[in-house]
C-alpha cells in the first residue's frame, strides 16, 4: 500500500512546532515616498535611544543603524517579544539626489529623513523660441 507524502506539509508541521520567543531584531519597517522636490523616508524605531541612531551616506548607500537596549528584569520573564540589539538597514539611492542636504528628525518612535532632489535633476521647462517672420523661398533665375 502506497502512502502520500507532502514535503511542504511536513515542513509546515516542523516549523510550526518551533516556539518563537523573540522577533527578528533586525526588522526596521520603513516607508519611502516622493513629495514635491524631495523624498521622505520614515522608519519605525520604537523604544530606541535617540543618541544611538546613526545615519550615514557612503557613495550612494544610505545606512540607518540604531541600538535598542534590553530591559533587565528582577525575577522571571513570563513573555519576552520586544527585540533588543542593533537594527540596521541599507538603501541604495539613485542619482540626482542632494546627498549632502539630507536632514533627519526622530519623534514618537519614527525616524524621518528628508532627501532633497538635486537642482540639476529637477524638471524644468525649456522655452521654444519662434520667429514672427516667415521665411520665403524665392525662385532665382
Automatic annotation (TrEMBL):
InterPro entries according to UniProt: A-crystallin/Hsp20_dom (IPR002068), HSP20-like_chaperone (IPR008978), Small_HSP (IPR031107)
Entry superkingdom: Bacteria
PROSITE patterns referenced in this protein's UniProt entry, alphabetically: SHSP (PS01031)
Domain SHSP: 21-131
Annotated family: Belongs to the small heat shock protein (HSP20) family.
Official protein name in the record: Hsp20/alpha crystallin family protein
Amino acid at each position: 500500500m502506497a502512502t502520500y507524502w507532502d514535503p511542504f506539509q511536513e515542513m509546515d508541521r516542523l516549523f510550526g512546532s518551533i516556539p518563537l520567543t523573540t522577533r527578528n531584531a533586525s526588522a526596521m519597517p520603513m516607508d519611502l515616498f516622493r513629495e514635491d522636490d524631495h523624498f521622505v523616508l520614515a522608519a519605525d524605531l520604537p523604544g530606541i535611544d535617540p543618541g544611538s541612531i546613526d545615519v550615514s551616506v557612503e557613495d550612494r548607500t544610505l545606512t540607518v543603524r540604531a541600538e535598542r537596549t534590553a530591559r533587565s528584569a528582577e525575577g522571571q520573564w513570563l513573555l519576552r517579544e520586544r527585540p533588543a540589539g542593533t537594527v540596521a538597514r541599507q538603501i541604495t539611492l539613485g542619482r540626482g539626489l542632494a546627498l549632502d542636504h539630507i536632514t533627519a528628525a526622530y519623534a514618537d518612535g519614527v525616524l524621518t529623513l528628508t532627501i532633497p532632489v538635486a537642482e540639476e535633476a529637477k524638471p524644468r521647462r525649456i522655452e521654444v523660441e519662434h520667429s514672427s517672420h516667415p521665411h520665403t523661398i524665392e525662385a532665382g533665375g
